[in-house]
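Example 4.3 (complexes with small molecules)
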Amino acid sequence: MRILFLGDIVGRAGRSAVIERLPGLRERWNLDCVVINGENAAGGFGITEAICDEVLNAGADAITLGNHTWDQRETLVFIERQPRLLRPANFPPGTPGRGANLIETRSGARVLVVNVMGRLYMDALDDPFAAVDQALDDCPLGQVADAIVVDVHAEATSEKEAMGHYLDGRASLVVGTHTHVPTADHRVLPGGTAYMTDAGMCGDYDSVLGMQKEEPIRRFLQKTPGTRLEPGLGEGTLSGIAVETDDRTGLAVRVASVRLGPHLEETWPQFWD
Ligand SMILES: [Fe+2]
Ligand SMILES: [Fe+2]
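Answer. The structure with fe (ii) ion bound is encoded below.
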């Protein structure tokens, strides 16, 4: 199977890059499954139902979220009727929506998509390791699921690496999101799980984490109230990881980083071209 995971969509720049480029990439690389983190898709803060539909229609099979899940209040309602939109699984019991779901992709594959949030330097939540265990026990790789994609939305690289090794051999891909800066450590772990500490973002990289630079710089210089953070308006770059899995085991065979657009050095899975 061929899986593409893209990091946090930030604002219109990120959305436009996804909507313009994803249909072509799906076809060119013959992708079986596309998962994208969409927690900053609506003006940098959360996701609306209209944007969710737009990203799914562009070729995403599932969308994951993170600490910005509820920034748009309508998400509390529409997440219940959108099985392809996932919020962190380790939110408290009774939280609307789902943290994991077995998705049928456009190619007919059954992919378990799991979203969890780390706890270091983030909100206090339930144990993300226990939450993933539960999701994977319900839907084992190679038996119920053809592939398993886990988005670990976390600040600390240590927590994301620990999760990768903890799930090694049980998931097809464990990928971090949230920092908006891609890491260079994409690889297949010894047990066969593809791993990358952070997928980066889909957005304008001539920015501070996708936001126009002036206000973030000002906040580091002055401790006075400022203005709202606004997403960068320049051309967006797609950033993430491409994974090829073994059809029998569901484990990863090879990986490549994906960066397409201005500002970052471009890279893509040449073994699919
Ligand atoms: Fe984000
Ligand atoms: Fe985040």
